Every structure is written in C-alpha cells, then in structure tokens.
Amino acid sequence: MSGTTSAMVRFSDVTKTFVGDNGPFNAVDGVTLDITRGEIFGVIGYSGAGKSTLVRLINALELTSGGTIEVDGRSITGLPEGALREVRAGIGMIFQQFNLLSSRSIAGNISYPLEVARWPKAKRKARVAELLDFVGISDKAKQRPSQLSGGQKQRVGIARALATNPGILLADEATSALDPETTQDVLALLKKVNAELGITVVVITHEMDVVKTICDRVAVMERGKVVELGDVYSVFANPRHPATRRFVEATIKDRPSKDALERLRRRHPHHLITVSVHEDGTSGGRITDVLSANSVQGSIIFGGISEVTERPFGSLTWELVGTPADIARSIETLKGYTRVVDLGTAEHPLADPDAYAPGTETDRPDAQSPSAPLPLDRLAAENAAQIGGIDPGNPNPLGGFRKGNR
Ligand SMILES: Nc1ncnc2c1ncn2[C@@H]1O[C@H](COP(=O)(O)OP(=O)(O)OP(=O)(O)O)[C@@H](O)[C@H]1O
Ligand SMILES: [Mg+2]
C-alpha cells in the first residue's frame, strides 16, 4: 500500500446494475464517498440496501457498471484480472459465517493465504504464531473449526484476513451470527486491529449498536444510495434521514415509544418533555437549575444515557409541575442549550414526531425484499478468492497459482 492520499477508498459516482426479476436495477446507485485512511467506517442499511454489493466493489468481487473506484490512490476500474488480484491481496475480508476450511486445523486455516502467497515454511510458522497470539487463541492452534465457538471462529477469520498484512479489512456482518457479549469481544478485536495495526476497517452491518461501538464515520444506505454520511456522534445526535432516525431510535431506546408514552401519561398527567443529553449540551444538573430558577418542579420518568463512540449520549423525559407560563419559560430556556421535545399534558397531548414505534422496521414503506442467498458454488469461489487473493473463477485455489512473497 502506497500511503500517499488520505482517501483509502474513493467512490466517484459508482453504480452497479444487476438484472432482477423485474429487469435491470441499480443495487448501488450513484455513490460518491471517501473512506479515510486509518478510520473505522460503517455502512448500515436494511436488507437489500446494497451494502454487500458496495463493499464487494472495493475488492473487485463485483465490477462497477458506472463511475470509478480508487483503492489506495490507484484506480481499480477497468484493471485486468492480474492487477485486480494484486489489489485484492492488499484487502482482507471477514464474513458472517466465518467461511473456515473445516478439514484444516486453526493454524492451517490462518496459514492458508500465506501458502497461496508462497511464504517459506519457517516464516509462515512464525507469522501464524504471531497472529494466533494477536487474536487471543494461541491455545487453539491444533484444533479444528468445529471445536470452536462462534466468537473463536471469527477470531480465526480475522487472523486469516490479516495474514498477508492488508491495508484494508472488510467486515461484512461479521458479528451478526454472534450473541451480544461475543459481539462486543469481536468488535473490541476489530478496534485493536485498527488502532494497533493502523488498518482501515470497513464494517457492514444492519445494527446501529455496532456502528455506535466502533465506527468513526457511518454511511446509511437505502435502495443503493447513500442517504446520510457523517461522523457517528453527529449522525446519532442529529439524524436527518428517516431511515437513520429509525436505526438510531431502535438502538438508543432512550425515548418513550408511542405506546410507552400513553402509559406514562396515565401515571404522570402533568407536562412532559424529552430533553436530549449530549456531552456538549445540557447536563442533568443544568436542567435542574433551569427548572428551579423558574419555580418548576421536575422529576425524571423515562430515559437513558449511554455511550456513542465513547461519549455520553441519550435523553431524559421529565414530568414538570408548575404554572403554564413558568413551564413555557423553562422550555424556551432549555431549547437554548439542547433539543427539547414538548409532549404536552395528558389533557392536551403533543406527539413526539420521532417516537420509535416497534414494528415499523418491517412495515416500513421502503422495505425491500431480503437479498437472495448467493449460490453455494459462488460463495466457495469467492471465499477462495478472498482468503488467497485468487481469481473467483479458479476452482483449484492451491494449484498452479503464483504469487510473490509479500
Ligand atoms: N449477483 C446478483 N445478481 C442480481 N441481483 C443481486 C446480486 N447481488 C445482489 N443483488 C441484489 O442487489 C440488491 C442489494 O443486495 P446486497 O446484497 O448488496 O444488499 P445488502 O444491503 O447487503 O443486504 P443484506 O443486509 O440482506 O445482506 C438486492 O436486491 C439483491 O437481491
Ligand atoms: Mg449483505
């Protein structure tokens, strides 16, 4: 990797057209974006949004129908297959289903791309030991994939993807098959890959929780287009697109849903407001000060503050008791500091325009049918291409393929 430009990956008006049941459609539609060298970049969207297609364009498992892609300062659009193999060798990839070779030991799996790249045996052995140690499974070297837990298998996947020192790691739903705790462990490992090895990581996910935990920036995709792009904290604090709002609210759960608000109103008939709490905005203490300065009594009845990219984020719903004038003045003052949603009283209720309503994710009007699973033979060929930098069309990945040592 040359390390000359700040963009590790640059999409310029990229389109990928497939022919579906209803004719041609753009799975990726006019995408322009830069993935910065050394960042953890998230791509989030519902099923069928085009996330996997977008990342598969980076390592040329899919070829663009329009526009150009640069990887590490070099245009990969229109490169011959031989040159694409070189590009792929600088890009590691991990998968939801791990895609390990069941007949090989753990060490054998990690060694595989090194064998393909013709590393000498001693160098391979040392590298495998180093990688096993890095991902924390040195004691599993001789075991088979079937003897490992999902989290351990993904560690093997990561070690294998890192074997030949790539500059980019693509993670397509890498934690989607894991339980929440194991997900956190694997995300911590991806963070370590980024921080200690300086590898640019591209994380594809449909879970905002993943984005919130490790990504620096995020692109939200819908119907092949990037509908929102920004640093993760700002996207959480100020989601503009409806799809982004749904993702954020389904994750943060700091605001009462429509139903929860109805229940709250029964128990708390006075004036309700929801106040956003950000690290640079209103703290709980400041809210209390504003209320008492206006002779309003307030109590917290709903809410939560969690971390987004290691910074505090959330909101609190308060019940306010006081004269309408005092309450109105308090709300005006608070609006000078932060976002305030006025929910009114039980008698004169106001709706939260962004309230999360469970079920809307599946009922959403723009829902697309889930992507069809890839045929097994194609998956196998791609797996081989990924782990060995081999032509996806080559059915015999270990035979006859030459690549210099890296
Ligand atoms: N090789 C292909 N041929 C035809 N259509 C395809 C092909 N690959 C993907 N698609 C279609 O392109 C659209 C985007 O698919 P893609 O796999 O990129 O979505 P995704 O966002 O990764 O979805 P998921 O979250 O389900 O993985 C879908 O409608 C899918 O069916
Ligand atoms: Mg996908």
TrEMBL record:
Ranges for domain ABC transporter: 9-248
Keywords, in A-Z order: Amino-acid transport, ATP-binding, Cell membrane, Membrane, Nucleotide-binding, Translocase, Transport
Cited InterPro entries: AAA+_ATPase (IPR003593), ABC_transporter-like_ATP-bd (IPR003439), ABC_transporter-like_CS (IPR017871), ACT-like_dom_sf (IPR045865), MetN_ABC (IPR041701), MetN_ABC_transporter-like (IPR050086), NIL_domain (IPR018449), P-loop_NTPase (IPR027417)
Record Gene3D superfamilies: 3.30.70.260, P-loop containing nucleotide triphosphate hydrolases
Molecular function per GO: ATP binding; ATP hydrolysis activity
Gene Ontology annotations of biological process type: amino acid transport
CDD domains: ABC_MetN_methionine_transporter
Pfam families attached to this UniProt entry: ABC_tran, NIL
Residue span of region Disordered: 349-406
Source species, domain of life: Bacteria
Name listed for the protein in its UniProt record: D-methionine transport system ATP-binding protein
Native source organism of the sequence: Sanguibacter gelidistatuariae
